[in-house]
From TrEMBL, chain A:
GO terms for biological process: transmembrane transport. It holds the Pfam family BPD_transp_1. It is a multi-pass membrane protein. InterPro entries: BPD_transp_1_N (IPR045621), MetI-like (IPR000515), MetI-like_sf (IPR035906). This is ABC transporter permease subunit. Residues 104-321 form the ABC transmembrane type-1 domain.
TrEMBL record, chain B:
CDD domains: ABC_NikE_OppD_transporters. One of its GO terms (biological process) is peptide transport. It comes from Oceanomicrobium pacificus. Residues 4-261 form the ABC transporter domain. Gene3D superfamilies: P-loop containing nucleotide triphosphate hydrolases. Belongs to the ABC transporter superfamily. This is ATP-binding cassette domain-containing protein.
Length: 331, 331
């Protein structure tokens, strides 16, 4: 469309964002009866009196209550620049923005830590397996990875909880803090408690992604090791370790980077699902409750946010790949 | 003075179908500053011979089963066949005393490092030049092999170079530590005729100015005629004839050498191409006697046993029963 690839990229991202907001709004409108009328009815049930006319007027002003659907959509997105994404019924009319803001950090922290952990373990193991191809250790790792690939995250979470509580007698029942520390101020003990709690979902999440990363790294490296420039590196007199890491593994990682864009949604999904099972303070539990209760401004906003994160994640993956592979950069 | 002396080399590849005798009792010598051409059809063991010398046999598959590879270095001679291929001695020989360039210039260089960085890596591995001095030397080398604007070119990645230029860069890299021997494994097979002539001329010049020996592997006798002093003709893992470059054209002895010569598209003689009858047997169907017997028009009863190497005179030896009556006996 435009000559400049950066402008093209930004324009297409903006278009995608708009599309996402439309889809999210459609999702919001999907359940019978709109959110605002449901809220009004609920408030009336609780208080046993009609909602005051000023409130109704405010709702009409802000959300287009009683107006055509497209007006409601426009009013909803008009709030975005002011950080207003609507309100939540299940959180007693609290601002969606507040609920999301309090939990987005932990969601991203979990997903990103899980990504680092799974790469940090899977890449060295993949390198080891590829350089010990067809030996016992390679067979063992490859089969464990195949097994790991076939277990869904939530099942791992449930199994882990079962073992922790019933076999090891732990008092872990989910969450990120023990009861004593939930509302305590940050201290060394609280932080340690937090780390212990974080370890569980983190391990479950990263093991899920590890199996795939391991298998791809192993296959990529085997492929690269067969290429001529690896022989050139050896012919220079480089140590085998340098040949493997600097010349072969360095290139075998590139396909993993381009896979990041696909891995991120899986990780976010996993984070959300595990958070529901383990009751972690991420976007998972409110999203789940909002979907069930048809609390659609909250559900729609989370949906939109997840889509935006994916968009940004993909952009970062593209930039990383261009940085890592000069053929992509110049091509 | 003899630089390299290979005696009774047997290199075996342990593959699924069994043990493959890729190099089967090969002996030859290369003097200092000499250019030796190694010719033979595909699969006759030329590359495996080179890999055996370099200690670059594929791990756990290739193995030097017997023989000596004596190389004059460090004021004495060293049997490379006895060295640990990954150990410090072989690593220092590789790149420092023996350089190597390969058939596929397009894939011989690492795509994610600049040409300059790859040459600097080789320089710094075998010297204690500072980074800046190594870069300066890399640029000089690039200029010497005929690359214009070496300072700018050194900062480019391989994908910005054509095949011929990449091969020049490979030569610069292989020469960076002033090796006594350069092994060029079909360096011009993948480039077009004009570039081939330029590269051969460059190799010729460089070996003269550095008094470096050159082991030039090719399946093209014309290439040998251009620049070699002596020729080794290989067939099915064996040396069938050793002679001078002049004699290989004027007075070829072995029926296989004659066949190779007859199949040569020569500019002078506009005769029809007469390729050698039959095909090279698969590596696992090695004939019991003379390996060439199934394709040889002059084969007799005698040829069911392996012919020894008959020395015709100081410069020529042939492994063929036709020369049984040559006085001197085994070489
Ligand atoms: N990695 C390997 N695994 C199994 N067999 C191999 C391997 N490399 C070479 N061989 C076998 O060893 C024999 C000698 O091969 P080599 O590569 O030395 O031939 P070459 O003379 O260099 O041929 P070309 O002109 O095609 O390069 C062939 O039969 C080949 O099939
Ligand atoms: S030994 Fe016999 S079969 Fe072999 S090349 Fe000589 S004549 Fe031919
Ligand atoms: Mg070869």
């Amino acid at each position: 469309m435009f000559k400049n690839p950066v402008i093209n990229r930004i324009l297409s991202a903006l278009f995608t964002l708009w599309l996402i907001s439309v889809i999210s709004f459609i999702v919001i409108q999907l359940p019978p009866g709109d959110v605002v009328s449901n809220f009004v009815r609920q408030q009336e049930l609780i208080s046993g009196a009609s909602v005051p006319p000023e409130t109704l007027e405010f709702l009409r002003q802000r959300f287009g209550f009683g107006e055509p659907v497209y007006v409601q959509y426009l009013k909803w997105i008009a709030g975005f620049p002011k950080g207003d994404f609507g309100f939540s019924v299940i959180y007693d009319g609290a601002e969606v923005a507040d609920i999301v803001a309090r939990r987005i950090g932990m969601t991203l922290l979990l997903a990103i830590l899980a990504l680092f952990l799974s790469w940090g373990l899977a890449i060295p193991l993949g390198i080891y397996a590829a350089t010990h191809k067809n030996r016992f250790s390679d067979y063992l790792m490859s089969n464990v990875a195949l097994f790991g690939l076939s277990i869904p995250d939530f099942l791992m979470a449930v199994v882990y909880l079962f073992i922790a509580i019933f076999v090891m007698g732990s008092d872990y029942t989910g969450g990120l803090f023990s009861e004593a520390y939930v509302d305590a101020a940050w201290s060394v003990e609280r932080f340690w408690d937090f780390l212990k709690h974080l370890a569980v979902p983190l391990l479950i999440l990263s093991i899920g992604g590890m199996a795939g990363t391991f298998r791809i790294m192993r296959a990529n490296l085997l492929d690269v090791l067969g290429q001529q420039f690896v022989e050139t590196a050896r012919a220079k007199g480089l140590r085998e370790r340098v040949v493997i890491y600097k010349h072969a593994a360095r290139i075998a990682i590139n396909p993993l980077i381009s896979r990041l864009g696909m891995q991120l949604p899986v990780l976010l999904n996993g984070t959300i699902i595990i958070s529901i099972v383990l009751d972690l303070p991420t976007l998972g539990p409110p999203f789940y409750r909002a979907l069930i209760a048809q609390d659609m401004y909250l559900a729609g906003t989370v949906l939109m946010l997840l889509a935006v994160i994916l968009l940004i994640g993909n952009l970062i993956a593209d930039l990383l790949l261009a940085w890592s592979d000069p053929r992509v950069r110049d091509g | 003075m003899t630089l390299l002396s290979v005696q009774g080399l047997h290199t075996h590849y342990h593959v699924e179908q069994g043990t493959l005798r890729a190099v089967d009792d090969v002996s030859f010598e290369i003097a200092e500053g000499e250019t030796v051409g190694v010719v033979g059809e595909s699969g006759c063991g030329k590359s495996v011979t080179a890999r055996s010398i370099m200690g670059l046999l594929p791990r756990r598959i290739g193995e030097i089963a017997a023989g000596e590879i004596r190389f004059a270095a460090r004021g004495g001679t060293l049997d490379l066949a006895q060295q640990d291929p990954l150990g410090p001695v072989m690593r220092d020989i590789r790149g420092n005393d023996i350089g190597m360039i390969f058939q596929e210039p397009m894939t011989s260089l690492n795509p994610v490092y600049t040409i300059g960085a790859q040459i600097v890596e080789a320089i710094r591995l075998h010297s204690d030049l500072s980074k800046a001095d190594a870069w300066a030397k890399a640029e000089q080398l690039l200029e010497r092999v005929g690359i214009n604007e070496p300072a700018r070119r050194a900062k480019q990645y391989p994908h910005a170079f054509s095949g011929g230029m990449r091969q020049r860069a490979m030569i610069a890299m292989a020469l960076s530590s002033d090796p006594r021997l350069l092994i060029a494994d079909e360096p011009t097979t993948a480039v077009d005729v004009t570039v081939e002539a330029q590269i051969l001329a460059l190799l010729e010049e460089l070996k003269r100015e550095r008094n470096m020996a050159l082991m030039l592997i090719t399946h093209d006798l014309n290439v040998v005629g251009e620049i070699a002093d002596r020729v080794i003709v290989m067939y099915l893992g064996r040396v069938v004839e050793t002679t001078t470059a002049a004699r290989v054209f004027d007075d070829p002895k072995h029926p296989y050498t004659r066949g190779l010569l007859a199949s040569l598209p020569s500019l002078g003689r506009r005769t029809r191409l007469t390729p050698i009858e039959g095909t090279v047997p698969g590596p696992h169907q090695r004939p019991a006697g003379c390996p060439f017997a199934p394709r040889c028009a002059q084969a007799t009863e005698k040829c069911n046993t392996q012919p020894p190497t008959f020395r015709i005179d100081a410069e020529t030896s042939v492994a063929c029963w036709l020369y049984d009556d040559a006085e001197a006996g085994h070489a």
